[in-house]
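note to self: dont lose this again. the chain is below, predicted strucutre after it. 306 aa total, dont forget to put it in the shared folder this time
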Amino acid sequence: MRRHPHGRLALITVVGLWLIGCGAPPDLIALNGESQTAFRQAEKLFTEGKAPEVVRLLLPVRLLHPDDDRVQGLIDKLPLDQVHALLHDSLLGFNKGKRAPIDASVTSRILLYLPDRLLDLLDVFGVEVNFGPQAGAGFWLTRAMQAKAFFGSTAGLGVYQKRNIGGRTEASAELVIGPGGGSALAGGRGGTGGVDGISTALPLHLPSEELYQVYRDYWGIGAKVGAGIVGVEFEFHILELADFLGGWFLADFLNDDLATTRRLRFNRNQQETYEKLIRMIGELSPEGMQEYWSKYPHVFPEGREN
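---
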C-alpha cells in the first residue's frame, strides 16, 4: 500500500488514459525535472496574485514531495479562503468542486440561478458503457457497504460526475466486502468536466483515502457488471442530490456553482506542464511512487537548487 503524504494536500487529478501493461513507466529523472518546472511556474503565478492557480499547480508537486518545506512554505503564503477552496475534504471527497471562489454580483446570481440548478441535476446520475477484457460484478450502497469482485482493463464512454461527458480508461483488480478488501486500479477520465484520474492500491476503504478524494464518490450508490468484452456501470450521487436541492435556497456546499466560482486560468505553458506532470504520475505504479519518494524527497535535490 502506498504511503500517505503528510499535510492536507494531495493530488486532485492524475490524468492519462492508463492501462496496465501499456507503455513504459516514466523516467524518474524526467519526472523530477517536470516537478521543478511546475514549482517555478507556481512561484511566477504567486507573484501575479493567482492563488487558486498556485494551489492547483502545486498539488501534484506536493504529492511527489510531501515532506518538502519549500512547497508547503509557498502554500502557507496564500490567502486561506483561496487555499481551502481547493483543499481536499475528508468527508465530501470527490464531490467537492475544484474551482476558485469569486464575489458574485446580484445580477450574476439571478442570471445563473436556473443554469446552476440544471448543472447540479446533471451531477446526480452517472452511467458508462465500456469495452475490453473483463469479468465480475459489484454493487455499493456507499463504499462502506459494498460487495465487488471485478477484474478488467477497459475503455468506455459515459456521463460522469462533475458534468463530465466523455471517456474513461481503467485497469482494475478488486475483491471487496464492506469497507475491507483489496483494490488496485489505475484509470483516467477526460471530457467536458475536465480530467481526473488515479493510480493506487489500498486494503481499506475510507472517505479520506486519495481514491475517494480525486476519482470516486465514496457516498455514491451504484453497480457495475462486466463479462467478456462488454460492461456497464451506473451510479447515483447522494451528496450531489443534496447540493441540487440546497441550490434552490442559494446553498452551494459542493463549491461548483457558476455564479459563485470560476474555472482556474493557466496559460498554455502552465497547462501543458500541469497535464504532463499528472500524466507522468498516473503512469507510475505504487512501487514506482515509493522509489521516487526515496530518491527525491525534495523538489530540488541537494546541489541543484535554482
